[in-house]
């Protein structure tokens, strides 16, 4: 006896012949048509074991980061539910019924620059897992901050040109070019001084 599998052979058509033992021998023939009903015997499978996505830290709620594609060999598709089971403690992301991984809450690259998520798909009977790496790219959303708001320094009036007077320090929480600082002088008398 073989195991039936609708995905392999959805229909069977054969005949049955019945003979009697009399003389003359008589027979009857009947046709049998069997159509297999699908049974949930296949797991939903992610098309990739690992997905990569990228989004800006100012991405709107509902922005699609990556589409998670599922294959299920069952003819009658069972609804698939997705769950993020690891790597997203704050609920920054969600996966819609169609497999699209979406931004669910505001992101902040300065707090978290990347996420490593584990996503589970289930059709109610079988489960499948995949991993998703999400890079959060920087936008210039932080102003520079001077470590002091006022600098006071006493210098001699006969100080030679190009003499070091003081260091002004500032930081910017953004990354890359967004955090590169340039300084310039303004206000009365600024032309008598320079800053690097």
UniProtKB/TrEMBL annotation:
Residues 4-46, 47-146, 147-196 form the Cadherin domain. It is found in: Membrane. CDD domains: Cadherin_repeat. It comes from Stegodyphus mimosarum (African social velvet spider). The keyword Transmembrane helix applies. PROSITE patterns: CADHERIN_1, CADHERIN_2. It comes from the Eukaryota. The keyword Chaperone does not apply. One of its GO terms (cellular component) is plasma membrane. Keywords: Calcium, Cell adhesion, Disulfide bond, EGF-like domain, Glycoprotein, Membrane, Repeat, Signal, Transmembrane, Transmembrane helix. InterPro entries: Cadherin-like_dom, Cadherin-like_sf, Cadherin_CS. This is Fat-like cadherin-related tumor suppressor-like protein. It is a single-pass membrane protein. GO terms for biological process: homophilic cell adhesion via plasma membrane adhesion molecules. Its main location: membrane. It holds the Pfam family Cadherin. One of its GO terms (molecular function) is calcium ion binding.
